[in-house]
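Q: I'm writing up a methods section and want to include an example of the input and output format. Could you take the sequence below and give the corresponding predicted structure tokens, formatted cleanly so I can copy it straight into the document?
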Amino acid sequence: MKTYLEPSEISLLENETTNLRDRLLIKLLFHLGCRISEALALKVEDIDFNHGTIIIQHLKVNLQLSCTACGQRLGRSHAFCSKCGVKVEKVQAEQQERRRQRMLPVDADTLVMLKEYIERGGPVLRDGKKLIFGINRHRGWQLIKGCAERANLPKLVNPETGRIHNVSPHKLRDAFAVRAVKMDDSGDGLRLLQQHLGHASFNTTAKYRKVSGKEHKEWYQKLWEREIA
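A: Here is the clean output for your methods example:
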């Protein structure tokens, strides 16, 4: 069972699209390694054709729970407040938003497709913003899944949980990360990948070394390079 998509399989995905918008979405997800939410939030003004860059906006929403009696922070599984000892029957929920942005380089082929799409009038005006795609997250997942089914691509296994998943937008992000690790799995390469993907933790990025299989293969080969004294 496969764990990630090969570039040739993503080309098959693109070939199954019926319009430039869908083809552009697949290319952006793979060539930028961005999240589907980030791709769908892209605005025309986020693209700098002169410098070949795109500004990615990432909104992360956290739900903070606290005790109604003393305000102590609580976990979802707490039955009693760790500070005042009151039984947790009702909690105060507060939604916190964190906005981050990062600037990513874009390859020439993707820029050409972006320019063609914009010149054809593809972007959608919504709430005063000129969105590149103008579709919601559910529709984005549907079109990737549909293209994968028409291309007869196999389902993929999560190497950490063993669960089987359909081809999804996130699998294109994974494919980008694995490709990057295969090209350069040095410490500097992984740090650049972490920055590019917008991972808060280095451990999240480092998992792609294992997914690519390179780390395991090198470890095994070293076992037989010379006889152990």
